[in-house]
Specification:
Helix 3 runs antiparallel to helix 6, helix 18 runs parallel beside helix 22 and helix 18 packs antiparallel against helix 23. The protein is mainly α.
Length: 535
């Protein structure tokens, strides 16, 4: 029986490998290269024990705990302890995203586009496609774990032994397998790839927040997050393997449940059915603007709630951060003091830049939806009516602009509401938080302009903008920590934004960024009007 339902799983696995012959190696090479480069950079940035202990002191404050996890091995902050403490969580999030995208692509997305129906018309088993997807995702994460583990050990860095390095790699691989299994489960529950990705990313975000809140104020809460599990491995310090076994064990249970649901449901059906729409659409929905907003409303609402909660999570720790920062000079490595401003204001400016980067993700997703609709041949139905290309692209552009403003506003207000409540008599008002967020609008407009340009002239290259976003996040979020040269931050529009409240608004730079954004956007519109529509 099992041979029948998994018939030709190996053949389908090779087919998936063929389709992802570039995608998977790029993910693995990028993650391994980043991990090894950061490990090497630690040896030059914090070569002395005094420098390592200084950064260890800065890791004890609640804000840093919320961002990277509870510190361990801080009394003897070796390179290994520093690596596992500061980088494991961030790498785990990226690996989780990789697994979500890979599994969705070969399950619900293929099902929606009719590929699974074609595959099932051939001599394959009912669960062969899901089995092949699991085999490839497991192999990818296992390969990543081994390469990172042996790679870190091969660097020969003091305190980064073989067991600790393999455990570090195993933690990354385990969290990847967990999110692959979780995504496969949501692929059975949801009726669309959008729902699968939305549910999976929502769990990923909630897991990060639950761990952050738990690490700062309630240790027990961290055990409700898979990120809390892998961080409990405490690689290079205590080398606990049982959290990895726990993570893989839960992933195995999710996998079994996903197989069961896949076996009993109909093709293209889901256990969370979509609600039937109204028989007659409103006049607003009959316009391209209303349609684009309707198609993405759930994702926009989810991101809006997430940005407010994320802002509030960072704002809630500002009270403790203020007292800690005032007494700890070791933070000079992380935050450069500015005369006339409190360290809390410096911290607000730094965190707001990170929040602005995260706000850009839903903005780009809205704009790239136009490309997705075109790829599924839905755009042709609109353009075949009395709808011009300029009006169609303009609708997505307007929604992107509005989403950027909403996301930044909610992130700033969330951080402000929680921050003002957490701080006593700090003199920092809600308006300061809001202005610190809203100054990043020109940078987001640049990113929207680039998205319009790529959709307009080279839709196949839109993934390059995500790589650019990753680069921007790296230099903005970790630039000061790793002491990157200033010119690296000037390669992204976020590097030109005034860091309010410690810097006054630079209107010249803002107007220049806005002008560039307008020029790029116009070029994108012209390109979209001239190029062939692809199906």
């Amino acid at each position: 029986m099992s041979k029948q339902i998994f018939h030709n799983t190996g053949l389908l696995s090779r087919f998936i490998l063929r389709r992802d012959r570039l995608r998977i190696p790029v993910w693995i090479i990028a993650l391994v290269a980043f991990t090894c480069l950061v490990a090497i950079s630690f040896t030059t940035l914090y070569g002395s024990e005094q420098a390592r202990q200084a950064i260890a002191e800065s890791m004890k404050n609640p804000a840093m705990t919320a961002m990277v996890g509870i510190g361990y091995g801080l009394d003897n902050y070796t390179f290994g302890a520093m690596m596992a403490h500061q980088l494991l969580l961030m790498t785990s999030i990226v690996v989780g995203i990789m697994s979500i995208l890979l599994v969705t692509r070969h399950t619900r997305a293929d099902e929606e586009e009719g590929r699974i129906e074609m595959v099932r018309s051939l001599p394959v088993g009912r669960l062969s496609n899901l089995g092949a997807t699991f085999a490839i995702s497991f192999g990818t994460n296992a390969s990543l774990a081994l390469i990172i583990g042996f790679g870190l050990n091969a660097l020969g860095i003091e305190s980064m032994g073989l067991e600790g390095s393999l455990l570090y790699g195993a933690a990354i691989g385990a969290i990847g397998i967990f999110f692959a299994a979780l995504t496969a489960l949501f692929a059975q529950l949801s009726e669309s790839p959008r729902g699968t990705i939305g549910f999976s990313f929502a769990i990923l975000g909630i897991a990060y927040l639950v761990r952050a809140i738990g690490d700062v104020s309630m240790d027990t809460l961290s055990w409700f997050s898979p990120f809390g599990w892998v961080l409990s491995a405490k690689a290079y310090v205590h080398n606990n393997w049982w959290p990895i076994v726990l993570t893989v064990g839960v992933a195995l249970l999710l996998t079994i449940l996903a197989f069961y649901l896949n076996a009993i449901r109909d093709l293209e059906a889901g256990f969370i059915p979509s609600k039937p729409g109204k028989k007659k659409a409103s006049s607003f929905l009959q316009s391209p603007l209303g349609l684009s907003l309707r198609l993405q409303r759930m994702g926009i609402i989810a991101w809006a709630i997430g940005m407010f909660v994320l802002g509030a999570a960072y704002g809630s720790v500002l009270g403790d951060t203020d007292s800690f920062l005032a007494q700890n000079g070791a933070l000079k490595d992380l935050i450069t003091p500015v005369a006339g401003f409190s360290l809390t204001e410096l911290f607000i400016a730094m965190i707001m830049s990170v929040l602005a980067m995260i706000c850009t993700i839903p903005v780009l997703m809205v704009m790239f939806r136009l490309k997705g609709e075109e790829k599924k041949n839905r755009t042709e139905h609109l353009l075949g009516r009395a709808v011009s290309r300029m009006r169609l692209m303009g609708s997505y552009f307007i929604v992107s602009i509005a989403v950027g403003l909403v996301m930044l506003s909610l992130a700033g207000l969330g951080m402000g509401v929680a921050g003002v409540a957490a701080m006593d008599s700090s003199g920092i008002t809600l308006g300061v938080f809001y202005q610190a967020a809203i100054v990043y609008l020109p940078a987001i407009w640049i990113m929207i302009g680039l998205a319009v340009l790529l959709v307009g002239i080279a839709p196949r290259l839109t993934s390059l903008l995500w790589l650019y976003m990753g680069y921007s996040f790296l230099v903005v979020y970790l630039g000061k920590l790793f002491q990157f040269p200033d010119w690296m931050s000037k390669l992204t529009p976020f590097g030109y934004i005034s860091q309010y409240p410690i810097e006054q608004m630079d209107w010249v730079k803002s107007i220049a960024l806005t002008t560039i954004a307008i020029a790029i956007t116009v070029a994108g519109f012209v390109g979209y009007r001239r190029r062939d529509i692809q199906g």
